[in-house]
Fold:
Amino acid sequence: MFRSFFPDEYLDSAYVIDYEKLYREGYRGLLFDIDNTIVPHGAPADDRAKKLFEKLRALGFRYCFVSNNQKPRVEPFAKAVEGNFIENAHKPAVKNYKKACQVMSEGGVILYPTDTIWGIGCDATNEEAVRRVYEIKQRSDSKAMLVLVDSPVKVDFYVQDVPEVAWDLIELADKPLTIIYSGARNLAPNLLAEDGSVGIRVTGEAFSKRLCQQFRKAIVSTSANVSGQPSPGNFSEISEDIKSAVDYIVGYRQEETGRPKPSSIIKLGKGGVIKIIRE
Structure:
């Protein structure tokens, strides 16, 4: 479900959205931020806001405010317009995307959350940046690394001939799936395996998906550990050596204590022959 929570249309204001059209199309629930979306930052619910939500209730919508602010800010606003709310929502801040993209565009290396475990990342087309990742992990560049993209459409740009079965595998995957393709292209040469293949995963996780969208290139994703050591299950398990070696650490999802499972890995051979590397 959460893979759908990414914008495919941008408008100047929440007040210009055609809510009647959305209702006719079958939508019944709406999520809003508050500050700089409905009102200026820190402002109370004004008459314009109250009239908007009165209209939405009359149409038949239910709505919820999702804010990174604390309860004393969010609750009074939600009550004033008769809405539900989630405070301290930990939505990723725009500054994280901007800084991460800036660092990678300058050839730097980042530490960031992905759809599986935390990863070390860089511009997947920059050979020197990829070399630095190998150096940080203290591993040979004869061992390839995978890359993340935000859309299946991007796979075609990095693979010469995508087997038809790949599209079905991507569409039907119900958990993170890395597919190894032959005939990689438009990527740093030292990123690829000796046979010219590359592992690509279409991420559905909120931060890494938007990061790929903003960066507009594939991003390297490799576990945040020195080669041969256990992969950290969450941010707290990442060693100080790794943290001090990268150029930027994304300030998002650092407090999580869960231990996500690694992705499944499938290798596609000639004619779409499937080999399962890891279930």
